Amino acid sequence: xxxxxxxxxxxxxxxxxxxxxxxxxxxxxxxxxxxxxxxxxxxxxxxxxxxxxxxxxxxxxxxxxxxxxxxxxxxxxxxxxxxxxxxxxxxxxxxxxxxxxxxxxxxxxxxxxxxxxxxxxxxxxxxxxxxxxxxxxxxxxxxxxxxxxxxxxxxxxxxxxxxxxxxxxxxxxxxxxxxxxxxxxxxxxxxxxxxxxxxxxxxxxxxxxxxxxxxxxxxxxxxxxxxxxxxxxxxxxxxxxxxxxxxxxxxxxxxxxxxxxxxxxxxxxxxxxxxxxxxxxxxxxxxxxxxxxxxxxxxxxxxxxxxxxxxxxxxxxxxxxxxxxxxxxxxx
Length: 332
Description:
- By secondary structure, this protein is α/β, with parallel strands linked by helices.
- It has three domains: 9-84, Arc Repressor Mutant, subunit A (Orthogonal Bundle), CATH 1.10.10.10; 98-167 and 273-308, Periplasmic binding protein-like II (D-Maltodextrin-Binding Protein, domain 2), CATH 3.40.190; 169-272, D-Maltodextrin-Binding Protein, domain 2 (3-Layer(aba) Sandwich).
- It contains eleven helices and 13 strands.
- Strand 3 (98-103), helix 5 (105-122) and strand 4 form a beta-alpha-beta unit.
- It is globular, with a radius of gyration of 24 Å.
């Protein structure tokens, strides 16, 4: 097979340059110096007889030829990676593979704290690299840069396979010394108290589901604290009269370590479903198949051993409002 003298390693550099459209950032992705990355770009320009990247103002843009090469180059690299990992079986006991997973800090806590002890026992040499999912952006998955994404089912990409992982519901969480919060909470109390909320994204512009539900009913809460991390919410409640609407699994986790109490919300909030999704090129990869099964097993085992009656909120009072659960679209 004749590649006209082209070093195929240059395609890795090309992929990074196309993704970043910036020599310095591409070099950081490749762990190369700026001069080495510039040299790779020069060799690519010579091989393809095209500038590939051209300056437009303060930015770089792709030439028409480069635009047509973006997807074929990425698919070629993904197929090459699939060939390298193509084996009839995956032996976790001896594997030294690194898995890259992307999820929110909420999922890291409720999933990975259950899974990591199990993984360490059965796959002691495997490395797990956890990427924070601060924005609901499918580009990282689309480029095949991660092995597994865990995301709300409603945000799944229709282009790649997925599997349901778990379901969660929302509860109200408060400091145990908060005298404003009793066994049951009225809507008036819910709206009167100050709230701690989570907003995602660099500009904190993406509201979480509980905020969307409240705004849909036309009620405005007293939002007194905004954070970008679900894991900070329980800690920020301590010593205050504020409340938060949080996932039950996360609230229950922190109730083991902090003086907190859980109460049923005065409005019915649709449950949240989280799913695993992976790039179609990894659908039959034995390692990824093992990882998915391990996460599910760890969650199921944790659910069986951590059901404690005292951690559940009191019986739900009569609902004043009811919102039908949103329909989700899942890719099998």
